[in-house]
Amino acid sequence: MPHTNQYSRRSFLRRAVDLGAAAGLALTAEDYEAIAQNVRTSSQPSQLKITDLRVCNVRRHWVVRLDTNQGLHGYGEVRDGASPTYALMLKSRILGMNPCHVDKVFRRIKQFGGHARQAGGVVSIEMACWDLAGKAWGVPCWQMLGGQFRDKIRVYADTPFVKDPQEQARRLKGRMEQGFTFLKMDVPIALLQGIEGTVTWPKGQGVNPFQQWGDANWEWTYKPHPFTGIRITEKGLDVFEAYCLKIREALGWEIPLATDHYGHFGIEDGIKLARRLDKCNLAWYEDMVPWWYVDQYLQLKNSCTTPVLTGEDIYLLEGFQQLIDRKAVSIIHPDLATSGGLLETKKIGDYAMQHGISMALHMAGGPVTMFASVHCAAATENFLVMEHHGVDDPQYDSVADGVEKPLVGKDGFVTVPNTPGLGVELNEEAVKRGLKNPEKEYFPPTTEWDNERSHDRLWSLNTGSTALFPISRGAQGVPGVKGPRHLRFGRLA
Known about the structure:
By secondary structure, the chain is an alpha/beta fold. It has helices at about 5-20, 30-35, 85-90, 90-95, 100-110, 120-135, 140-145, 165-180, 220, 235-250, 265-275, 295-300, 315-325, 335-340, 340-355, 365-380, 430-435, 440, 485-490; strands spanning about 50-60, 60-70, 75, 150-160, 185, 200, 230, 255-260, 285, 310, 330, 360, 385, 400, 415, 425. Among the domains are: about 5-35, no CATH class; about 150-425, Alpha-Beta Barrel (TIM Barrel), CATH 3.20.20; about 460-493, no CATH class.
C-alpha cells in the first residue's frame, strides 16, 4: 500500500477517535480500524498510472490487461480474429499515462486504428482504461457514460446455416427455447449450389460464387461485390424466397428474424433478392454490399421495404456519418471492438438517433467485449439488440467472474452489472485450463515492447527545410526512454 494511503488512514483513525470522544460515543480505535478496512484506500485516481500491458489468449480471444502503480488492473479485448500485435505495439505509447483520462489516452493512439480488425489494439486499450477508471472511482462504466436507459440488454444469436429449411427452422426454434426473443440466420448463395440454372457467373481464374467465406485465391475471395459478375436468375430467386417463407411460417410471424451473408453479387441482384424477401417481414438485411458504397446502400434502402443495416467493420463516427447523414441505412451496426470503444460507440449511437436511426451491436468477442458492449448499450437510448456469437461454446461463461450467470438469462437478456468498471473479472483457473502452457501463456511479460519508438506525429513543425521534433517524451509520453541524441532533437528530411 502506498505511503500516502497509510498516512491517510492513520490520520483518519486519530481524528475519528477524537471526534467520537467529543460526541460521547463509546467507540474504540479497534472499532474505527474495522470501519477503515471498508474504505477504498488503494485507489487514488488522480495519481493512477499505467505501468504494464500484457496479453493472454482467452478461448480464442486476445485479452489485454493494463496494470497500474496502485495494484488495479483493467481488461480490454482485441477484436475477434485480430492479432495481439495491434495492442502490443501501443504499449510504449501509453506507459505512464493516467487511464482515468480515457478520452486523452484514446486520442493519443486512435491514429493506429483502422477499419475492421485493424482497430483491435486501440479499442482494447480504450476498454481497459474504462475498466480501470470505473474501478478507481468505484462506479460502473455505464454511469460514467451518462447513466442507464435499461438494466437488461437484449441479445440475439446467429444460427448456423443448413440448406434444409425444416432443419434451419428447427435450429431457430431451439434458440427460442433457449429464451432468445430475436433471431438471425444466414441466407447465403450457397443455398443455390448444385441447383442448375440459378446462378450466372464468369468462369475461370478461380471465380467461385460459393466460396464467400475464404479461399486460397485471395484475389477472388476478397473482391468487392460490384466486381464479381455474379448474377442470380429468377429460378435462383424462387429458391431463396421459398426457403425463407418456409422458415418464417414455421417460426411464426411475431418473433423478429434478421438475415445476413448473402453472397458477393452486385447491388442490382441485391435489390432483386430484397424485393423477393420483403414478404417475409424480416428484421433487416445485413451487409448486402461493402459498407463504403453509400450510394448503393441508398439505392437498396429506397428499393425495398425491409430495414437495411451495416457497420460492423467501420472505425470511428466519421466512418458512419455519410450512411447516417444520407439516411442510407435504417439501422447502424457497429462492433464496439472496431468502432472505437465505449465512448465512441455511444457517440455513434447518439448521432444516429438524431437522424431517426436505431443501433444494433455486432459482438463476436469474449466476455470482456460482451460487457464493454453491455455498458455501452445500457447508456445509449436508441439501442435495439446485441449479437452474441458464443452461445454454442459451453465454456464461454466459465472464464467470466463477478457477473450474473448464465451470462444470457432464460429471457434472452444480459443483466447490466452495477459493480465498478466493466464488472467482469477473469477466472484464472478456467482461463489456464484452455492454455497449452499456462505458466508461460497466462499474461506473460511483454518487456520487448516497452521501448517501441516511432515519430508518430500526423503533422509537421516544418519551417523551410528543417523541423525540430523533441521526442524524448514526445507523442509516446514514456519518461526515461530518450534514445539517441540525433533522434531526440533532429532534422526531418
